[in-house]
Specification:
Layout: H1 2-15, E1 25-27, E2 32-35, E3 42-47, E4 53-57
Antiparallel strand pairs: 1-2, 2-4, 3-4
């Protein structure tokens, strides 16, 4: 009985852990994240398909498309 109660409590606690970065969709060849707003260390490059912002860190340089 004690083990069952411990298992139920553990599952309830794990169910309330917030997700990590996986909650944001990736954009800009996997270097950016689709979010409702960008942090002060990021800038946005374009809109994601769900109309959120594609946020890139300032240190990431966008790759220019080849004109061949």
């Amino acid at each position: 009985m004690t083990q069952l109660l411990l298992l139920i409590v553990a599952l309830l606690v794990l169910g309330h852990v917030p997700p990590g970065r996986s909650e944001f969709k990736r954009c800009w060849m996997g270097q950016g994240a689709c979010r409702p707003y960008c942090t002060k260390y990021e800038t946005y490059m374009h809109l994601c398909p769900d109309a959120s912002l594609c946020c890139l860190a300032y240190g990431i340089k966008p790759v220019a498309a080849s004109k061949t």
